[in-house]
User: Fold these one by one.
Assistant:
Number 1:
Amino acid sequence: IRKKVRLCWNPPRGSKDEFANSITLGLKFDIDGKLTESPKNLTRNYRGSLLAFEAARRAVIRCSPYSELNPATYDVWKELNLVFQPKNMVR
């Protein structure tokens, strides 16, 4: 998922310091790999930019569906927490 999302990542304008912290997104999928709801910000003590969170959320939505996920293991990936390092998302 992370590799695919990197292709959809479009960094927001702003200070690089705003993107130094990691962001954790909560994702929920249906069995076809489509998002069932908008990604949630699960980051504890988030000190980064709301712009970085929004960019990560948009990238995950833009790349959906994730048809490469194996339906046989749906119980494993139907709900995932994806950790983003915005500074490492540059293509």
Number 2:
Amino acid sequence: MNEAYRIRVLIVDDHEMVRRGLSMFLRSYADLEVVGEAANGDEAIAQCATLRPDVVLMDVIMPGMGGVEATRRIRELYANIHIVALTSSSHTGTVTAVLQAGATSYLLKNITDDQLANAIRTTHQGRRTLAPEATQALINAATRGPEPTFNLTERELEVLRLMSEGKNNPEIAEALVVSRSTVKYHISSILSKL
């Protein structure tokens, strides 16, 4: 294949063995060229400045500057560089954070080398590739109802705090200087709201 058409790839992962393994896999594809490696987000940004890769394989969880922040900064500085988040986490918060930061694709590290190569090609074209677990995490985030708001009054919060300290109704009444029936009313209201 003509070298002008090779997709330039930067590998970012804090584990050297992972970087070496990915590099070895990717070097077997004629249309992919590994141009560099980085062990954290800071190194990734510096490498992007000098190497100008087409696609960055970005680990999400790394010491120092992690993949989410590095993705955000790279996309701000180099809009033409596409990022594939390549991680072991399918946690909804992680998936949404890295995609909102600007990653084009999200893959888990359990994929095959052919799947990874195809995802790099697809990402280079600006199209998304998502691991099924990442897709499910996004569906869960989109379909989850709003967090409940219980709208407890200030007095109900005081009663609840005293209940959580193990106080009984007479002790709560004494602490708040109210009648026992008032405490029962507040407890009933708290239970119905919760």
Number 3:
Amino acid sequence: MENEEVLENTPETLEQLVNELNDYKDKYYRAVAETENMKKRVERDKTQAIRFANEKFARDLLETIDDFENCLKLEIDDSMRMGIELVYRGLLKTLEKNNVKECSYDLFDPQFHEAISCIESDQESNTILEILRKGYMIEDKLLRPAMVSVS
């Protein structure tokens, strides 16, 4: 018992011990709260990582989609066109299954559209007149803005 400190049984000592106990309780509660916050952060990050794991891959595929669309604008024989359309539609279905969808084109929205040119028109201002390159979203996140001409 050499290392044990003998405490006097006085009100000051009791108050000191109660204060120390309260400090330790406070530190404990803060550590528990921080651990819970960390668990929630890790879970949220994991969910986001899973949710957007295909983002880069999908973005790379958009160039192939563009190539197919450009190819379908060319004058080619019907059997070739049917084959290209079949592959193109399959690619679009695959993207759709992975929550990649085309942006809407109602009115110009700088969050989803990139105005390449403004054209004089009798249409309402900020109306999209031409889509030069389609825009796409993955879930609720912009994957690629659309390039458009607006009035």
